[in-house]
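Cross-posted from the bioinformatics board.
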Amino acid sequence: MSFYSVFEQYQKIDIEKIIGAFDKHAVLRSLNKNTLSIDDFAALISQSALPYLEQIAQKSHDIFRRYFGNTIQLFTPMYLSNYCNNRCLYCGFNHDAQIERYQMSLDEVENEARVIASTGLKHILILTGDAQQKATISYIKSCCDVLKQYFSSISIEIYALDTQGYENLIQSGVDGLTIYQETYNTNLYDTLHPTGPKKNYRFRLDAPQRGAEAGMRNVTVGTLLGLDDWRKEIFFTALHASWLENHFPETDFSIALPRIRPYYGSYQPEYQVTDQDMVQMIIAIRVFLPRCGITISTRESEFFRNNIIKLGVTKMSAGSTTAVGGHSLSNTRHNQFEISDKRSVAQMAAYLENNNIQPLFKDWERF
Amino acid sequence: MQNDIFEIAGKKLDSRLFIGTGKYASDSMIPDVCQSTGACVITVALRRVDFNAITDNVMQHIPSHMQLMPNTSGARTSDEAIRIARLARATGCGNWIKIEVITDNKYLLPDGYQTAKATEILTKEGFAVFPYINPDLYVARDLVNAGAVAIMPLGAPIGTNRGLRTEEMINILIDDIDLPIIVDAGIGKPSHACQAMEAGADACLVNTAIATSENPILMGKAFAEAVRAGRNAYLAKAGGTSQWASASSPLTGFIRNHEGQS
Amino acid sequence: MVITINGQELDFDKELSIQDFLDKKNIKTNSVVVELNQNIIYSDKYSTTWLTHKDKLEILRFVGGG
């Protein structure tokens, strides 16, 4: 059993056309249901739903409060290593990019951890490029041994592993997995990933499932918004998350919504994704999948992030840097992408509190 | 007055109240009830002719414009239901059939499995199948797959007039099943029918409550009005903003207020 | 010959068609549906369908129901 068998069925359909055919009656009918189907979700992300964004947002806010409370979890990414064998066209760590490659030593990792921990954060997301010979499983495990002294929850955003690989990391204290399909469009995926291990679409698509099977407590999926038409991408993302939720009821799933940001390179996203589009995505996901987390990173501006905290978002990064050792190392390395909201953890927390949202620093304890 | 037409099985109905012909003190009341209810669909049963009793033929009392929906009452298995359906169609009354397969004589609760079996076969034979069931989501899904044209979940056991005891489960069907939901059985008062329609049911079938009331013609009128009221309430809610009204401090106002931000 | 009609065993000494039986019982043709040995017989065949020994005949019509 794999999500692919469901995905295959929907691939045969002209999703854009179907979404385009919903009218306002369909939107309202779907909105007023207690339990929504993927078809209802499609209605909510359609153009016909635009006049009803406020209503959908109200429902989304209500569901958010009931399922998550007035809380948003804070975390920050820690880039361990930017060596990479892929040549993903859209990424700043592309193998051919003329940037300085670096991988932190364990001492440097500990230093970085100390700096981050001093902000009060207890949830860390560790990232590497796709260089399994360099940022080996063994290296990552060693980093985890250091990190678990400082953080109560470790999530990984690294190259796709098999189930055993995830089990191995879980033994070292990892409890969360983040892995984006980047695009669900198989042809586009092929073009964007010319060489390297990441080229294998199917292997990546099944990674969230393998993570859940291995015992990850949290699994986050997502698509890089801007690569393809967002409605199509978000349709498949929600379909994916919904399938995962139904098959792994003991795992918490989230959807991240990374909107492409300019980086030191030449890839320009094909599609524009507006603030309105982002809002529609957030509220539609919240209404369709009440239990699903929604993550918004510091790719987004301060203005945007300030205004979406009531819509149903459950996780936000803060005090971020996308450079290896960016929190602590004095030499500024190249960033994977530009950060927009540059506020510190303290500033972000203060903003949330002033708006009646409790910032969560710690939501888990390993046992 | 809005045109709220109920399209089903190739027919356009202007009434969402279906009525029955059973339990009347006198069948001669039926034409007046048809009129007072404004109903378009009426159910009948199929039984052996009694040669010794000279009884009226109920068909004489049913106005010719009514859409007949024979039921398979008496069937205890899918085979029996199929047999009755074929016989009913042979009378020339059309291809609508309400499948009622009841093995239990105490509560008169329908057998979902037998019903689904009969639905699949009869659909293939060109019937417009209206299955009567307990409001069970999985049975309903099987019936969708079997080709039913609607789902008829019971509100309460037949004849009990208890109202929507199964309201929660019917709501689930309304939400989750992509076929018209016609609440059948157990509707004892017009307010029950109103409640069902307000929740989003597509129609109600009422027999006992009208036929056995003191004044079936007036009760029929009451039910017709209740069904219309419930339906209008449902439409008003769906089309309007009463459930999720725009607040004074909108959550999404920032998008429009900040032009050029994208 | 013995024919079971609507569950009752009836004796007939002369052969008869379905139409004959209906006429005998004063049953209007268009008010019933007929099944002979589990097969539906349509009204145009009533006069030409002859009943034989051990046949099972069902004659049904619509009655009030919910």
